[in-house]
Amino acid sequence: MRWQHLPVLMLLLALLVVPGSAQGVKYLYGSPDLSATISGTNQFAPGAETQIAVIISNSGLNTHKIVGSTLLTPDDQPNTAKLVTVGLKSSDTPFTVKTDPQFLSDIAGGASATATFDVKIADSAEPGTYMLPLEVTYTYLADAEEYGSDVLRYNYQKRTRTLPLEVRVTPDLQVEVLDVRSESLNVGTEGYVYMTLKNVGHDTANKAVAMVTRSGASPLIPTDGNAYVGTFEPGETVDVKFKVSVADTAEPQSYPLDVAVTYEDYEGKTVTSRSATIGLPVGGKIAFEVVSPVSTLYLGQKSILEVVYRNSGAATVYNAQARISAVDPFTSSDDTAFLGDLAPGETATARFEVNVDGEGTEKEYGIDSEIRYRDDLDNSKISDTMKVRVALERRQGTIFTNPVFLVAVLAVIIGAGYYIFVYRKKQR
Fold it and tell me: d(Cα 142, Cα 304) in Å, to the nearest integer?
């Protein structure tokens, strides 16, 4: 053998020997050590519905390790928590857990996993600190026994631990509506809403402002929706007043309106209470109709057009004025008439001076008319347009039916009568 081939031969022998010298590892006296903490805030207000994220951490250590060429290495380590299941409990607390226990699989030593629970805090929850028990169930490798050079028998044990989670209920203001009434709240108008509010919470509200807001797509829209309250103590009641408008598309029925209070809490932070929803009845729309029959006017003449209007709505109107829009073949120099105040169901007659073109067509026309009025809040409103039905005819007959001729004849008769009266008096 040549000496220069010796290093190559030694390397080959080393490669053949290495697999036979592999070392086995076995850990002794290790076990999982689990703890739980809440991710984020642990402070919640009464009535809140929230998610609580819980971090489960495993700080378990393997304190003894054996290495040997004859040892078999187990698949699991003693400090690994296997098949972990967690469930949040709420016994004897104002918390309601809506999420079932969750499976988190394995948590190795030095690792963590997160479980999220949906939780509802009772409206009546008293401020203070509470403990929510987190029940954790897992399995771990307690021991691995070797049988021969190629068999391991695993000895797993199941354990259940209860880990406390500290949560805090903060004081807050809660609004309860004790009384509500409305005034002049009709479709298409503005009205007032009066409420008596009570602080049924546990926090003293400073610089409190009561406010009403639109509830979803409700036709009730606040136009003056804030009322300053000031200091609002627990158990205290206050009376507030708001102005609300009703959309023209509403119907005479009840609609929702939200009320809440913005205030400075016990920490000096500006917060808003949870909204309380009330229902408000809305009266029918203010409306009018023409109830007079078809009026007959004559071509080429000036006439008085009498129109009877009725308040067919659900509220009284004030200082009502009727107006017509005269178009060809009509003209008018007196197209407005005062109707006064009209309660629901009442009628009033308007008189308009109308000229009719002699070249017009004999048929029935519809003259546009509307009413301007003031509502209970003294807002100026205009009604929907109505049609005043007018029939045009051409007056038939001899000269004796002509109004001018009749007036002249009457004048002659009066003059003749006066002359006879004076003459007879002189004869006496």
Answer: 111
Least confident of 23-32, 107-116, 313-322, 374-383: 23-32
List the one residue out of 217, 216, 227 whose CA is nearest residue 192.
227
Residues 155, 35 share a domain: yes
Q: Which residues pair with 212 in a beta bridge?
A: 259
Q: How far apart are CA 246 and CA 217, in angstroms?
A: 12
Extract the tokens encoding 167.
Answer: 């949560």
Instruction: Tell me: do 165 and 60 sit in the same domain.
Output: yes
CA distance 263 to 174: 11
pLDDT of residue 398: 44
What DSSP designation does 400 have? G
CATH of the domain at 350: 2.60.40.10
Q: Taking the CB of residue 417, how many other CB atoms lie within 10 A of it?
A: 10
Cβ-proximal residues to 414 (8 Å cutoff; 6+ apart), any chain: none
CA-CA distance, 173 to 234, in Å (whole number)? 7
What is the DSSP code (8-state) at residue 250?
-
Same domain, 209 and 267: yes
**Same domain, yes or no: 165 and 38:** yes
6, part of any domain: no
Same domain? For 129 and 116 the reply is yes
Last residue of a domain, one of 233, 264, 281: 281
Q: Rounded mean pLDDT of 316-334? A: 94
**Domain stop point among 266, 281, 296:** 281
Segment 84-100 mean pLDDT: 94
How far apart, in whole angstroms, are the C-alpha atoms of residue 168 and residue 269?
18
Using alpha carbons, select from 396, 326, 332, 335 the residue that is nearest to residue 365: 326
pLDDT for residue 152: 76
Give the pair of three-digit tokens for residue 306. 């009498």
Can you give the residue range of the structural domain that contains 423?
A: 399-428
As for how many domains the chain has, the answer is: 4
What Rg value do the Cα atoms of the chain yield, rounded?
47
Q: DSSP letter at 17?
A: H
